[in-house]
Amino acid sequence: MGSADDTFLARVRTAHRRVFRSLTVPNYRRFFTGHAMSVIGTWMQRVAQDWLVLELTDSPVALGISTALQFLPTLMFGLWGGVLVDRLDRRRTIMATQAASAVLAAALAVLVLGNLVQLWMVYALALGLGLVTVLDVPARQAFVTEMVSPENYVNAQALNSTVHNAGRLVGPAIAGVLIATVDVGAAFAVNALSFVAVLVGLARMNPRELHRVPALPRAKGQARQALRYVWEHPELRMCLFLVAVVALLGQNFRVVFPLLARETFGGGAEIYGWLTSALGVGAVLGALASAARVDATTWSLLLWTFAFAGVNVAVAAAPVLGLAMAAVVALGIANICFNTLARTLLQIRADPTMQGRVIALHSLLFLGSTPLGAPITGWVCEQWGARTGLLLAGIPAGLAALAVLPWLRKVRALREE
C-alpha cells in the first residue's frame, strides 16, 4: 500500500513540475505574479464599464458602442502595432502600456467617484484603452519568447491563459460586490492599483537573463512584409485562417449566452451567470491541460478546431440546462486549447524578428473581428434563436478544418518521403 501511495505521489509531483515548469524561471515568475493581479483588475473594469454604460443610458446600443471602441483600434492599426513591437524593447513597451492603462482606469475612477462622468467620457477612455491594446497585446504575447526557452513556450502561454481565465472567474465577482456595496467607481480604482503589481514585476526582472531579440531597424514596407511572410509560410497561413473563422463567428459568447439563458432555458441573469462560469471552469481546465504539453503542432490545432466545432453543436442540441452546462464546460476546454495552440504555433514557427508583427496579425483577427462578428451573431440569433448562433459558431469552424485537412495530409506525406 505504501509503495502504491509513494508512486501516486511521485506522479503527482512530476505532473505538477511539468505543468508549472515555466515558474522556475525567475523573470517569468515575476511577470506571472504581477500579471495574475492585473488581470483580475482588468476583468473588474470590463464588468464595471458595462454596468456604468447601462446606468448612464439604459441602452444596449450604447453598450455595444463602448465595447466596439475598445476593439476597433486593433482592427484598424493592429498590424502597425506589431511593427512597433518588433522595433522597440518589449519589456519597456509593456511597462509603458501598463502604466498608460493604469492612468486611464484612474481617470475613469475619479470621474465616476466625483459624479462628473458623462457617456462621451466613457467612450473616449474606452477608445484610449483600445489604442493602448494595439501595442500591449502583441508586446505581452511576444515577450514570452524572451522570458523562457523554446521548449517552454507552450507551457508559458498556457499558464498565461490559466491566469486570464481565473481572472474571468474572480474579477467579475469582486466587481459585483464593490458595485453593490461601495460604488462602480471603486472597481475602476482597484483596477488602476492592480497595475502596480505587474509594473513592479517587470521592474524587478534581470534584463541580462532575457533572450533578447535584435531590434528591427526602421524601414518602409515592414507591415506589408509581415503579410508576405505569413503568406509564404503555409503553417502560419493555415493557423491564421483557422483563427479568423473561429474568432469571427465562434467567440461571441457574450452575445449568445444571455439569449440562451433567457429564451432557450427560460431563465434570467442567474442562468447567464451559470453558463459564463461553466465556460470559465472549462477554460481553466483547458489551460492547465495545455500547460502540460511540450510542443504545439498543426495537427493538434486542427483536432482542437474539430473539437471546438463539435462542442458548439452539442451545446446547441442540449435539451436541458444541465446537459448544456456540461457541454459549455467542454466548450471552454476546446476554446482555450485552440487559442493557446494557435498563439504558440505562431511564435514557434515565426522568425524572432517577425514575432511582433505575426502576433499582431493574430490580435487583429482575434480581437479586431469582434465589432464585425458580434452583430452578425446577434442578427442570426434574433432571426432564428440562440441555438442557431451556436451552430453559426460550430459549423463554419468544422468546414474550415475540413478545408485545411487535405493540405495538412499533403504536407505530412512530403515530410515522410
Overview of the structural elements:
This is MFS transporter. The structure is a single chain. This protein is 84% helix and 0% strand. The protein has 16 helices and no strands.
Number of strands: 0
Q: What is the residue-mean pLDDT, rounded to a whole number?
A: 83
Residue fraction in strands: under 5%
Number of distinct helices = 16
Helical fraction: over 70%
- Briefly note the structural class of the backbone: mainly alpha
For the largest beta-sheet, the strand count, sense and barrel status come to: none
- Low-pLDDT residue spans: none
Overall, the morphology is: globular
What is the ordering of alpha helices and beta strands?
A: HHHHHHHHHHHHHHHH
Radius of gyration: 21 Å
**In whole angstroms, how far apart are the ends?**
50 Å
Write the layout of secondary structure elements.
Layout: H1 2-19, H2 26-57, H3 60-87, H4 90-113, H5 119-147, H6 153-181, H7 184-203, H8 222-232, H9 234-250, H10 253-264, H11 269-291, H12 298-317, H13 321-349, H14 355-366, H15 370-384, H16 386-416
